[in-house]
């Protein structure tokens, strides 16, 4: 098995975590979380999205959030944008990185966006032109890459087709996303290895939800496939659009904890990541699916017991 | 990565799941669960333990349970026994397989059993003689093999020492157990590979708790190390003796679901395993940490959506 020295964590809690929450956080609360994320040492942060506020009211203040946040050097702040209008707004707010997104599944794409994946891709051409003109970087997401609630398992060829379209547009940072938690580690290893080998020019990011508890296994399999960048959301916020009460994104702190236990560096201070998760949990005001938030780190257990022993 | 055709699941819910429950199930309830486990196709079942009823009242009726249960051909029923007295009771009740257990960690062993691991091992000699005389098979468990709340990470050499002691007694089925959920997949792969290579005569079983969400990853890593037998407990019952409210054993149905998604056969009917978990949850009367019980199988999601589409 492969054990890279370093794995990179992208924090998507402010976007994919909060967008599924019933409670709308204030900008001050979001800024507090953002500060904590930055302080923990995470260098890639998805701060929000520029979608229609009626569709996702939780993200309606993304513009203001970007205007108010202090940008720390060395941290990449990105927002999700579905089209040129979103990109223009992100740019106007002061962001230099945006993530385009479409669904690899034709049925899902048509159902959600009323367009086929290729029609959506055509809509990205003006985004690419706009980005070039204003010196913005673009990332491309392939949602439903690992499974679709309409189409089931997605064949690798279907992913590959969309990857090639992104590459035609010159977008070489690509994220394979699993919002319904249907990916399994064998699939991640097999499809991931194929993609890494076929497209060595791509910077791959994997995005997993822990709907069926396979997210950490999928990250492990992704690492074996040679991928070293993974999304996570503090406290495991988020959910699944089709399953009420399903668990959401893989909790950032659980990912970091596992990696550190495996002697893989993330550059993140785990205690601070746990503190972020704890604060996020307080803000949303309900139980969350984070494990280390509940059980503590392995070393905490040993320390507690050692202390008790010493106190005897 | 390795993808064996077949992986074997041992159901330990009736023992390691229920022994941590506040509610004491009746023998009838336990028999109902046992019938469901057998009907799901699981072939190795840990039905209880012969420990002192004051220490673990949940297991006080193991003797009666064994006397009343109907033994299905081809199913291996085992109980955990700490010493000769336990083994004699198991035999008297009609069981032909027992699992001895000790902790690899000296501090943990002394704290729990008031004996060192080697002193406990010496106590197993009469068990081996008794088993030979009465034609019983013995399995050996090494608890705290992956981490100890007193000693932290356990070095492989410490596990190896106990393995050699078990082998001296002629016990070649060995289970490496992680009741505090401290194992991580790199460790499982590295220690597991070493053990498989060093002791090819051993039939290895891995027992993980999902305390910090690493259990499925650990199973994946165990498979990569060449191990194909894993314990699980219906609905993920159980817990951690040192962490209140921590999640317990890895849920059997989540293990089976992941393996089936990976095209690895378990011989178990997943729907029936989910039904067992649902019934166990009803009996204990509280929320459980099972994922597929809550989110359903991947295919359920696709089926539901497909049906909705067809009904439009």
TrEMBL record, chains A, B:
One of its GO terms (biological process) is ketone body biosynthetic process. Keywords: Lyase, Metal-binding. Residues 7-274 form the Pyruvate carboxyltransferase domain. It comes from the Bacteria. Gene3D superfamilies: Aldolase class I. GO terms for molecular function: hydroxymethylglutaryl-CoA lyase activity; metal ion binding. NCBIfam families: PRK05692.1. Belongs to the HMG-CoA lyase family. This is Hydroxymethylglutaryl-CoA lyase. It comes from Geosporobacter subterraneus DSM 17957.
